[in-house]
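Q: Here's a chain of 359 amino acids. Please give me its 3D structure as C-alpha coordinates.
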Amino acid sequence: MTDPHALDMDAVGIWLRTNVLDADGEVSAEKFAGGQSNPTYAITIDGEIRFVLRKKPPGVLLPSAHAVEREYRVTNALKDTEVPVARPFALCEDPAVVGTPFFIMRYVAGRNFWNALLPDMTAAERAAVYGEMNRVLATLHQVDPVAVDLADYGRPGNYFARQVARWTKQYRATETRTIDAMEELIVWLEANNPGRTVSRIVHGDYRNDNIIFARDEAKILAIIDWELSTLGDPLADLAQHTLAWRLPAEGYRGLADADLHQLGIPEEADYVRQYWARGKTAPPPQSEWAYALAFASFRNASIRQGVYKRSLDGNASSAAAAIHGIRAGEIAKLGWRIARGEHDAMLRHADCTSTSAAQ
Protein backbone atom coordinates (compact mmCIF):
# COMPACT_ATOMS: atom_id res chain seq x y z
CA MET A 1 0.00 0.00 0.00
CA THR A 2 1.31 3.46 -0.92
CA ASP A 3 2.19 5.66 2.07
CA PRO A 4 -0.13 8.73 1.85
CA HIS A 5 2.50 10.80 3.66
CA ALA A 6 5.45 9.85 1.43
CA LEU A 7 7.09 12.76 -0.39
CA ASP A 8 8.31 12.86 -3.98
CA MET A 9 11.92 13.66 -3.11
CA ASP A 10 12.88 14.49 -6.68
CA ALA A 11 10.18 17.17 -6.74
CA VAL A 12 11.16 18.42 -3.29
CA GLY A 13 14.81 18.66 -4.29
CA ILE A 14 14.07 20.63 -7.45
CA TRP A 15 11.78 23.01 -5.58
CA LEU A 16 14.28 23.54 -2.75
CA ARG A 17 17.16 24.31 -5.09
CA THR A 18 14.97 26.84 -6.90
CA ASN A 19 13.41 28.56 -3.88
CA VAL A 20 15.71 28.16 -0.85
CA LEU A 21 19.31 29.27 -0.50
CA ASP A 22 21.97 26.73 0.49
CA ALA A 23 19.77 23.78 -0.46
CA ASP A 24 22.10 22.17 -2.99
CA GLY A 25 23.00 18.54 -2.40
CA GLU A 26 21.36 15.16 -1.92
CA VAL A 27 17.94 15.67 -0.32
CA SER A 28 16.10 13.20 1.90
CA ALA A 29 13.20 13.47 4.33
CA GLU A 30 11.97 11.73 7.47
CA LYS A 31 8.54 12.35 8.97
CA PHE A 32 8.54 13.42 12.61
CA ALA A 33 6.65 11.13 14.96
CA GLY A 34 3.96 12.67 17.14
CA GLY A 35 0.51 14.12 16.86
CA GLN A 36 0.93 16.88 14.31
CA SER A 37 -2.28 17.44 12.38
CA ASN A 38 -0.07 18.90 9.64
CA PRO A 39 2.54 16.28 8.60
CA THR A 40 6.03 17.56 9.40
CA TYR A 41 9.35 16.30 8.04
CA ALA A 42 13.05 16.73 8.78
CA ILE A 43 14.77 17.65 5.50
CA THR A 44 18.35 16.44 5.24
CA ILE A 45 20.89 17.89 2.80
CA ASP A 46 23.93 15.67 2.26
CA GLY A 47 23.31 13.85 5.55
CA GLU A 48 22.74 16.95 7.70
CA ILE A 49 19.29 18.01 8.93
CA ARG A 50 18.94 21.55 7.66
CA PHE A 51 15.25 22.31 7.20
CA VAL A 52 11.76 21.31 8.26
CA LEU A 53 8.92 20.86 5.77
CA ARG A 54 5.38 21.27 7.11
CA LYS A 55 2.46 20.48 4.81
CA LYS A 56 -1.27 20.05 4.76
CA PRO A 57 -2.39 16.43 5.06
CA PRO A 58 -3.88 14.65 2.04
CA GLY A 59 -7.60 14.22 1.54
CA VAL A 60 -10.68 16.42 1.82
CA LEU A 61 -10.19 19.12 4.49
CA LEU A 62 -12.39 21.71 6.17
CA PRO A 63 -11.87 25.12 4.48
CA SER A 64 -10.16 26.75 7.48
CA ALA A 65 -8.31 23.68 8.76
CA HIS A 66 -4.61 22.80 8.47
CA ALA A 67 -3.76 26.30 7.23
CA VAL A 68 -0.01 26.05 6.68
CA GLU A 69 -0.23 29.29 4.70
CA ARG A 70 -1.25 31.10 7.90
CA GLU A 71 1.50 29.36 9.87
CA TYR A 72 4.03 30.60 7.35
CA ARG A 73 2.64 34.12 7.46
CA VAL A 74 2.64 34.50 11.24
CA THR A 75 6.11 33.05 11.75
CA ASN A 76 7.47 35.16 8.91
CA ALA A 77 5.98 38.24 10.59
CA LEU A 78 7.48 37.33 13.98
CA LYS A 79 10.91 36.17 12.83
CA ASP A 80 12.62 39.49 13.64
CA THR A 81 10.77 40.16 16.91
CA GLU A 82 11.64 38.95 20.42
CA VAL A 83 9.25 36.03 19.96
CA PRO A 84 11.34 32.92 19.14
CA VAL A 85 10.17 31.05 16.04
CA ALA A 86 11.70 28.62 13.57
CA ARG A 87 12.64 31.05 10.78
CA PRO A 88 10.57 30.31 7.66
CA PHE A 89 12.20 30.44 4.22
CA ALA A 90 9.58 29.82 1.56
CA LEU A 91 5.94 28.88 1.02
CA CYS A 92 4.71 26.62 -1.79
CA GLU A 93 1.00 26.86 -2.56
CA ASP A 94 1.22 24.62 -5.63
CA PRO A 95 -0.16 21.16 -4.72
CA ALA A 96 1.64 19.62 -7.69
CA VAL A 97 4.96 19.47 -5.82
CA VAL A 98 4.10 17.24 -2.83
CA GLY A 99 0.32 16.92 -3.17
CA THR A 100 -0.65 19.77 -0.84
CA PRO A 101 0.68 23.25 0.06
CA PHE A 102 3.72 23.36 2.36
CA PHE A 103 6.39 25.65 3.72
CA ILE A 104 10.05 25.31 4.60
CA MET A 105 11.54 26.56 7.85
CA ARG A 106 14.87 26.32 9.62
CA TYR A 107 15.53 23.16 11.63
CA VAL A 108 15.89 24.04 15.31
CA ALA A 109 17.84 21.48 17.34
CA GLY A 110 16.81 21.33 20.96
CA ARG A 111 14.57 19.71 23.56
CA ASN A 112 10.84 19.12 23.32
CA PHE A 113 8.99 18.20 26.52
CA TRP A 114 5.94 15.93 26.25
CA ASN A 115 5.54 15.45 30.00
CA ALA A 116 4.50 18.63 31.83
CA LEU A 117 5.94 17.19 35.07
CA LEU A 118 9.47 17.30 33.58
CA PRO A 119 10.44 14.12 35.48
CA ASP A 120 14.16 14.13 34.63
CA MET A 121 14.83 17.61 36.04
CA THR A 122 15.62 19.14 39.41
CA ALA A 123 13.16 21.51 41.08
CA ALA A 124 15.30 24.49 40.09
CA GLU A 125 15.42 23.36 36.46
CA ARG A 126 11.63 22.93 36.37
CA ALA A 127 11.12 26.38 37.83
CA ALA A 128 13.38 27.86 35.17
CA VAL A 129 11.52 26.08 32.34
CA TYR A 130 8.13 27.28 33.54
CA GLY A 131 9.47 30.79 34.10
CA GLU A 132 10.71 30.87 30.51
CA MET A 133 7.40 29.61 29.13
CA ASN A 134 5.65 32.35 31.09
CA ARG A 135 8.05 35.04 29.85
CA VAL A 136 7.73 34.11 26.18
CA LEU A 137 3.94 33.92 26.25
CA ALA A 138 3.82 37.40 27.79
CA THR A 139 6.29 38.59 25.13
CA LEU A 140 4.10 37.23 22.32
CA HIS A 141 1.04 39.03 23.66
CA GLN A 142 2.88 42.34 23.78
CA VAL A 143 3.62 42.33 20.03
CA ASP A 144 1.58 44.95 18.19
CA PRO A 145 -0.09 43.17 15.23
CA VAL A 146 -0.05 46.38 13.18
CA ALA A 147 3.70 46.79 13.66
CA VAL A 148 4.41 43.35 12.17
CA ASP A 149 1.89 43.62 9.31
CA LEU A 150 -0.66 41.29 10.90
CA ALA A 151 -3.50 43.77 11.36
CA ASP A 152 -5.70 41.61 9.12
CA TYR A 153 -4.57 38.24 10.49
CA GLY A 154 -7.94 37.90 12.22
CA ARG A 155 -11.03 39.92 12.98
CA PRO A 156 -10.34 42.30 15.88
CA GLY A 157 -12.59 42.36 18.94
CA ASN A 158 -15.47 40.10 20.02
CA TYR A 159 -13.10 37.13 20.06
CA PHE A 160 -14.92 35.03 22.65
CA ALA A 161 -18.28 35.34 20.86
CA ARG A 162 -16.78 34.22 17.56
CA GLN A 163 -14.90 31.36 19.16
CA VAL A 164 -17.90 30.08 21.10
CA ALA A 165 -19.90 30.07 17.86
CA ARG A 166 -17.09 28.36 15.95
CA TRP A 167 -16.49 25.57 18.47
CA THR A 168 -20.19 25.05 19.05
CA LYS A 169 -20.55 24.47 15.31
CA GLN A 170 -17.57 22.11 15.33
CA TYR A 171 -18.99 20.24 18.31
CA ARG A 172 -22.43 19.88 16.71
CA ALA A 173 -20.82 18.52 13.55
CA THR A 174 -19.14 15.72 15.52
CA GLU A 175 -21.71 15.17 18.27
CA THR A 176 -22.42 11.50 18.94
CA ARG A 177 -24.43 11.74 22.15
CA THR A 178 -25.75 14.39 24.51
CA ILE A 179 -23.16 15.66 27.00
CA ASP A 180 -25.21 17.62 29.52
CA ALA A 181 -22.24 19.70 30.68
CA MET A 182 -21.53 20.80 27.10
CA GLU A 183 -25.13 21.88 26.64
CA GLU A 184 -24.95 23.90 29.86
CA LEU A 185 -21.61 25.42 28.87
CA ILE A 186 -22.82 26.50 25.44
CA VAL A 187 -25.78 28.36 26.94
CA TRP A 188 -23.67 29.86 29.75
CA LEU A 189 -20.82 31.01 27.50
CA GLU A 190 -23.23 32.73 25.12
CA ALA A 191 -25.06 34.46 27.98
CA ASN A 192 -22.03 35.56 30.03
CA ASN A 193 -19.61 36.94 27.41
CA PRO A 194 -17.60 39.62 29.27
CA GLY A 195 -17.42 41.80 26.15
CA ARG A 196 -13.64 42.17 26.13
CA THR A 197 -12.12 43.97 23.13
CA VAL A 198 -8.39 43.26 23.59
CA SER A 199 -6.84 41.95 20.37
CA ARG A 200 -3.34 40.51 20.10
CA ILE A 201 -1.58 37.67 18.31
CA VAL A 202 -2.54 34.42 20.02
CA HIS A 203 -0.92 31.04 19.42
CA GLY A 204 -3.99 28.99 20.26
CA ASP A 205 -2.13 25.89 21.48
CA TYR A 206 0.74 27.15 23.63
CA ARG A 207 2.02 24.22 25.69
CA ASN A 208 5.30 22.55 26.56
CA ASP A 209 5.29 20.08 23.65
CA ASN A 210 4.83 22.91 21.12
CA ILE A 211 8.01 24.59 22.32
CA ILE A 212 11.65 23.82 21.51
CA PHE A 213 14.11 24.55 24.32
CA ALA A 214 17.88 24.81 24.12
CA ARG A 215 19.63 21.57 25.03
CA ASP A 216 21.67 23.01 27.89
CA GLU A 217 19.54 25.79 29.39
CA ALA A 218 15.97 26.88 30.04
CA LYS A 219 15.81 29.06 26.94
CA ILE A 220 13.08 28.81 24.33
CA LEU A 221 14.51 28.63 20.81
CA ALA A 222 11.20 28.35 18.95
CA ILE A 223 7.46 28.16 19.44
CA ILE A 224 6.10 25.73 16.84
CA ASP A 225 2.71 24.53 15.52
CA TRP A 226 0.99 27.86 14.83
CA GLU A 227 -1.98 26.23 13.13
CA LEU A 228 -4.56 27.74 15.52
CA SER A 229 -3.00 31.21 15.70
CA THR A 230 -5.02 34.32 14.93
CA LEU A 231 -5.79 37.76 16.32
CA GLY A 232 -7.62 37.19 19.56
CA ASP A 233 -7.88 37.79 23.27
CA PRO A 234 -4.63 36.95 25.10
CA LEU A 235 -6.74 35.95 28.12
CA ALA A 236 -8.00 32.98 26.10
CA ASP A 237 -4.43 31.99 25.20
CA LEU A 238 -3.36 32.19 28.84
CA ALA A 239 -6.38 30.18 30.01
CA GLN A 240 -5.81 27.47 27.42
CA HIS A 241 -2.17 27.25 28.50
CA THR A 242 -2.91 27.09 32.24
CA LEU A 243 -5.70 24.54 31.85
CA ALA A 244 -2.92 21.98 32.39
CA TRP A 245 -2.92 22.95 36.08
CA ARG A 246 -6.56 21.75 36.26
CA LEU A 247 -6.04 18.39 34.53
CA PRO A 248 -4.33 15.16 35.73
CA ALA A 249 -1.14 13.74 34.31
CA GLU A 250 -2.61 10.42 33.24
CA GLY A 251 -4.56 10.77 30.03
CA TYR A 252 -4.24 14.58 29.92
CA ARG A 253 -0.54 15.32 30.55
CA GLY A 254 -1.55 17.82 33.21
CA LEU A 255 -0.44 18.85 36.69
CA ALA A 256 -3.53 18.54 38.91
CA ASP A 257 -2.36 15.47 40.87
CA ALA A 258 1.21 16.68 41.41
CA ASP A 259 2.93 18.17 44.44
CA LEU A 260 3.96 21.31 42.60
CA HIS A 261 5.89 22.82 45.52
CA GLN A 262 8.11 19.75 45.75
CA LEU A 263 8.60 19.69 41.97
CA GLY A 264 9.50 23.38 41.78
CA ILE A 265 6.59 24.14 39.43
CA PRO A 266 4.61 27.28 40.34
CA GLU A 267 1.00 27.01 41.42
CA GLU A 268 -1.50 28.26 38.83
CA ALA A 269 -2.24 31.47 40.75
CA ASP A 270 1.47 32.30 41.04
CA TYR A 271 2.07 31.49 37.38
CA VAL A 272 -0.77 33.76 36.28
CA ARG A 273 0.47 36.57 38.53
CA GLN A 274 3.92 36.27 36.93
CA TYR A 275 2.36 36.58 33.50
CA TRP A 276 0.48 39.78 34.36
CA ALA A 277 3.56 41.27 36.03
CA ARG A 278 5.61 40.60 32.91
CA GLY A 279 2.96 42.17 30.72
CA LYS A 280 2.85 45.21 33.01
CA THR A 281 -0.94 45.20 32.88
CA ALA A 282 -3.55 44.78 35.59
CA PRO A 283 -5.13 41.32 35.85
CA PRO A 284 -8.78 41.05 34.78
CA PRO A 285 -11.65 40.58 37.24
CA GLN A 286 -12.08 37.05 38.61
CA SER A 287 -15.30 36.70 36.61
CA GLU A 288 -13.43 37.22 33.33
CA TRP A 289 -10.71 34.74 34.28
CA ALA A 290 -13.37 32.17 35.18
CA TYR A 291 -15.06 32.78 31.82
CA ALA A 292 -11.76 32.24 29.98
CA LEU A 293 -11.11 28.97 31.86
CA ALA A 294 -14.65 27.73 31.22
CA PHE A 295 -14.23 28.57 27.54
CA ALA A 296 -10.84 26.78 27.42
CA SER A 297 -12.48 23.67 28.89
CA PHE A 298 -15.33 23.87 26.38
CA ARG A 299 -12.92 24.26 23.46
CA ASN A 300 -10.78 21.37 24.67
CA ALA A 301 -13.84 19.15 25.05
CA SER A 302 -15.02 20.10 21.56
CA ILE A 303 -11.64 19.19 20.07
CA ARG A 304 -11.63 15.84 21.88
CA GLN A 305 -15.15 15.10 20.70
CA GLY A 306 -13.94 15.70 17.16
CA VAL A 307 -11.09 13.22 17.69
CA TYR A 308 -13.61 10.72 19.05
CA LYS A 309 -15.91 11.11 16.05
CA ARG A 310 -13.02 10.76 13.59
CA SER A 311 -11.91 7.64 15.42
CA LEU A 312 -15.37 6.15 15.00
CA ASP A 313 -15.48 7.12 11.34
CA GLY A 314 -12.10 5.49 10.83
CA ASN A 315 -13.31 2.25 12.37
CA ALA A 316 -10.86 2.45 15.26
CA SER A 317 -11.20 -0.12 18.03
CA SER A 318 -14.06 0.74 20.34
CA ALA A 319 -11.78 0.90 23.38
CA ALA A 320 -9.37 3.35 21.73
CA ALA A 321 -12.15 5.53 20.38
CA ALA A 322 -14.23 5.52 23.55
CA ILE A 323 -11.50 7.09 25.69
CA HIS A 324 -11.61 10.29 23.63
CA GLY A 325 -15.35 10.57 24.12
CA ILE A 326 -15.04 9.96 27.85
CA ARG A 327 -12.38 12.67 28.20
CA ALA A 328 -14.51 15.16 26.27
CA GLY A 329 -17.28 14.62 28.80
CA GLU A 330 -14.92 14.89 31.78
CA ILE A 331 -13.42 18.19 30.64
CA ALA A 332 -16.87 19.58 29.85
CA LYS A 333 -17.88 18.79 33.43
CA LEU A 334 -14.79 20.62 34.69
CA GLY A 335 -15.69 23.67 32.60
CA TRP A 336 -19.23 23.66 33.90
CA ARG A 337 -17.99 23.50 37.50
CA ILE A 338 -15.81 26.55 36.84
CA ALA A 339 -18.72 28.36 35.17
CA ARG A 340 -20.92 27.65 38.20
CA GLY A 341 -18.43 29.38 40.48
CA GLU A 342 -16.02 26.64 41.56
CA HIS A 343 -13.03 28.81 40.74
CA ASP A 344 -10.50 26.25 42.06
CA ALA A 345 -12.13 23.24 40.34
CA MET A 346 -9.76 20.55 39.12
CA LEU A 347 -10.10 17.23 37.36
CA ARG A 348 -8.02 14.66 39.20
CA HIS A 349 -7.17 11.12 38.17
CA ALA A 350 -9.48 9.64 40.82
CA ASP A 351 -12.38 11.66 39.37
CA CYS A 352 -11.58 10.36 35.88
CA THR A 353 -11.43 6.77 37.10
CA SER A 354 -14.82 6.99 38.77
CA THR A 355 -16.35 8.78 35.78
CA SER A 356 -14.98 6.23 33.35
CA ALA A 357 -16.22 3.35 35.47
CA ALA A 358 -19.67 4.90 35.65
CA GLN A 359 -19.83 5.11 31.87
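Q: Can you summarize the key feature?
A: The chain has two domains: 9-106, 123-358.
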